[in-house]
Amino acid sequence: MVETVRRTGRDETEEERADRMWGELIQEIRVAQTGVQILFGFLLTVVFTPKYAHLAHTDQVIYIVTVVLGSCATGALIGPVSLHRLVSGRRIKPQAVRIASRLTFVGLVLLLTTMTAALLLILRVATHDDWVPWLVTGVVAWYLVCWFGVPIWTRLRHTTR
């Protein structure tokens, strides 16, 4: 009788695992960076349009907060690249991967808040309706489900530790 052995993990050293995780992290950052850079670039142009001067004070404050959040998100998502460049060759890749992963998570949270604020501003300016906060809340709930709910559920359901 032949017994089949089910593999439960990868046969890799800590350094090999760090190399693999770094590559995966960089791919994830590329996706998020593209989104935040496009959004941030768009936001930077708004202040130079004629309509900006006619925005209500509240909308101008929302705009400024959105630009600052977008700038912070950009910094957090580019941070891992700088981290890698500055510590490369120092034999601390596992630690660098952990720090870069945390920076990326912070960047995603900042991207979520930037997108929320941008959506709020755009819908306030476009519609002036009282239902805008409810719509934005619904979209944010969707982001939370897609970005955090499904991954956490998957992690809890399909991992043992």
Describe this structure in words.
With 161 residues, the protein is an all-alpha fold. The protein has 4 helices and no strands. Helix 1 (14-46) runs antiparallel to helix 2 (57-87), helix 2 (57-87) runs antiparallel to helix 3 (93-127) and helix 3 (93-127) packs antiparallel against helix 4. It starts with 13 loop residues before the first helix and ends with a helix.
Q: Could you write a compact summary of the structure shown?
A:
By secondary structure, the protein is mainly alpha-helical. The protein has helices at 14-46, 57-87, 93-127, 132-158.
> What does the radius of gyration come to?
21 Å
Structural class: mainly alpha
Helix content: over 70%
Net shape: elongated
Q: Report strand %.
A: under 5%
Alpha carbon gap, first and last residue: 32 Å
Q: What is the count of β-strands?
A: 0
**Mean pLDDT level:** 92
Biggest sheet statistics: none
Query: SSE order, as H and E?
Result: HHHH
Give the number of helices. 4
Low-confidence stretches: none
Overview features:
single chain; 161 residues; mainly alpha; 0% strand; elongated
Layout of helices and strands, plus pairs?
Blueprint: H1 14-46, H2 57-87, H3 93-127, H4 132-158
Helix pairs in contact: 1-2, 1-3, 2-3, 3-4
